[in-house]
Design goal:
The chain is 55% helix and 12% strand. The protein contains twelve helices and seven strands. The relative contact order is 0.19. The structure holds BIS(adenosine)-5'-pentaphosphate.
Amino acid sequence: MALNLVMLGPPGAGKGTQAERFAREHGIPKVSTGDILREAVHSGSELGREVEAVMDRGELVGDDLIIGIVRERLSRPDAAGGFVLDGFPRTAAQANALDDITAARGAVICVEIQVPDEELVRRVRGRRVCEDCGANADAFVHLADALPDLCQSTERCRTVGPKWVARSDDSETVVRERLKIYWRDTRPMIEYYSSRPTFRRIDGMQTPEQVREALVSAAASALGLPPAQLRSLVAKKLGAQA
Ligand code: AP5
């Protein structure tokens, strides 16, 4: 059994914050489609040039493109023991593709973080990220013990320090557009997952630490395991493959 976790929820719910920490604590990769696309934009690659305007409008990039990215990323050896997916799937086509990609990989835990719209707008408008590595400034406050890992990932961050900027899609107009698209395209897809035995909902209107605890409990209960056994699941799976 591997530790396959999908984080679901609207923009600003805390998916990225929690995915980052859960992945680090359980020794599995965090696969964030938003981060992958932002890195491509930042590097000026062909993919980045293709998606930049779409992201800045708050719209979704094409299903085929994003499914190809996730399929390739999950095929890498470091994802054999499990993964945390953040920002994927977002449409019915992506959900179907994920079922296909994970068909032979054991149970997939899906956790939806719930937060009211006005709080989402407040959080996203206040967010600042490091222009160079994408680390989240709020996370420094909330997850102080994670500080060394959060903004030192590039040479510039280590030597010059973080440069805090607003994300180009975090203006109020674009956030409201992202929420509209979420309710139209993504929320119905979450209903599709909600009847599965490995689906859980958690309250995102708690402190990040409380949400973290709720996430670990939800993931463990979805697999019928005590929380402490989640990590050994990954070690066993990777050991069996070695
Ligand atoms: P993406 O990067 O995935 O953005 P998103 O889903 O809109 O989510 P966010 O990153 O805004 O929020 P989050 O839930 O991760 O919250 P976070 O932890 O950062 O996608 C961006 C764009 O890429 C899309 O619009 C689309 O164009 C494209 N894209 C990506 N994936 C795609 C796909 N699959 N298909 C098509 N297109 C795709 O937290 C938010 C803030 O709140 C932070 O400041 C944080 O510190 C703070 N916070 C977190 N938890 C708490 C808490 N408990 N209490 C108070 N504050 C908190």
